[in-house]
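Can't paste images in this forum, so I'm doing it all in text. The chain is below; anyone willing to post the predicted structure tokens underneath?
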Amino acid sequence: MEQKSDVQYRAEKEYKNSREKFFLLLREIISNSIHAVIIRQSKEANFIPKLDLNIMFDDIQCKIELMDNGEGFTQKNRQYFEELDKKNVEKEQFRFHPLGQGRLAIVYFADSSEYETVYKDEDGMYHKRIIPYPKTSEGLFSIEDFEEEVPLETDTYTKLTISINKPNTLGRAKTFFRNYPNIDLFKQWFIETFFPFIINNDKLVVNIILNGENAIIKKENIKTETENTSFDLVFNDSKKVFTLWLIKKNVQMHGDNPITCFARNLRADLSNGKLSYSIDNDNGFLLYLTSEYFDEYVDTKGEKIEVSCSDISEISKKINQILDAKFKTVIERNQKESTANLKKFKKKYPSLEAFIKDVNVVGDKNIVSEKDMVQSALSEKSRIEKNFWNQIDKDPLNDEDGHFSESEDCQKLLNSSLHIYVKHRENVLKQLHALIQKFDEQGENKPELESRVHELFIKRGEILSDSSNVNHLHNLWILDDKFTTFSNNFKAKSTKSGQPLSDVYIWADDPEKTKQILILELKSTTRAHNAGNHNEGMIAQVKRYARDFFMKPETVLNWSVNTSLIQYTGIILARKSDINKELTSNSFSGGYKPIPFLSNSYYYDDNFSRDDNPRNKIDIRIELYSFEDIYELASSRNDVFFRLLKNEFNTEKI
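Text version of the structure:
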């Protein structure tokens, strides 16, 4: 027989790490009641096993009443109750795997409890006892210490009443009922926890009242929505039988759907992994797995199943085979939708395409959405980019460091970055095309100011002398890709509005090469103000800017240079109609030739006067490009870049 202090010590030792697991109390007392009614059912042909569970809780207390119509505290049952660790032989015959320790949960999680029981003796006489547990005194526990009386009832039962009202114990109860605050949620928890007992007993009836809300649980309520299949696996040269249960539910299946395992007819978790089945399905199912194999490896609390990772893997493989066959049409439909989503993803996000493996998408049993692919690709890209920055500045002679720069991952990252940049250029070209359009959406004339064109090509007032963080400042690549990067020896200056200067100056000051300057004049995309002007047309204007620079280079560009040794180029961007107007005006001296492969663009090796003497000439090549030609040319280059990045060109050896 046991002493109160021994029971309390054992309870603390068993459950001290289970403070957030109030469900263990409910599971222990309910499973014991189910055991009791099933044992009586095995002895009486017309017996209907029944449990009544009434739970009342609020902010100050929790009261649990559980009544079963089992045999009660018979002489045989009392001997198992009076001592811990004594296994009930009848329970073992039913493979309930008793350990004789269930009452410890009552001691740990409850503040007070009381058993009321009616039972029959060997002569068929009814007796009744009321037993507080644990015993209020410190002495040895014996049921015989509690007075026996003659009951009014003529049937056996056991009623357990538990009170919880102290801060620590009540806090544990509140944590549990916060997740199951109403009868529907609690009913679902009950079924998930005690499913094998319910599905394997045609007569068992459980009546539940939770704060006044009622529910009845029995097999016929869930059988019509349940199907199962059994399979065998061999572990340690022994065949083990498993049963997979599918219970219909009103919620769709999505992603990884957990498979709930049971040991000793109670829900339990796998210690070394988990089982799940991944699928998207409009028809939802709960997935349960039962097996006597789990009974052999569950811990003393019945909470953890200690089976190996390899065994879990084998079980998972078999379950996937079974469910893949069952949901074959669903999987095919999902994969068809994923394939369509993949095509949309590639078209919409070409810079991320390299970070997704097609086989992982089209082979998935879930519907892989565009959002899923973006998140997966970004995660993979961030991993590679982190490696890139960790490796790129290391010793290039180191084999390991050099290997990364040549790796497939590195090439993916570079390809992605180029995709983004080329897509950015495409967007800029769309803006240019919108500026070129002669008419607005209503068909009216749409005059565009030179300032808008200027800002598109390069921000006003900016000087570009390096290539770090300047892509947002200019789009001079529209003119030619050699005007993409800049350095101390290759610079660009954008003038401010109102300055008596050309729009843009680009100059090269490499000491080992011929010094050059390009004077870029940007006109309105719809109508230039001085095209063909008899006083000063567009060409004459560029020549004047060239002469101004020749005379005062430090004033114009803060460049101390011998201007006589510079190669001069002037470029005018204007609408094709303005170029035609310029070249057909009376002030035009002629000699301009079409630029090959362009429709409305021209060039001429012209000159300007270096001083007031008209004989002192400086050569300057002047090119007139129509916005229409420049747009088509830049768009073609960009299209080629895109197609190169998408591997649409094949390189063949001749």
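The mean pLDDT is 89. The domain at 4-216 is CATH 3.30.565.10 (Heat Shock Protein 90).
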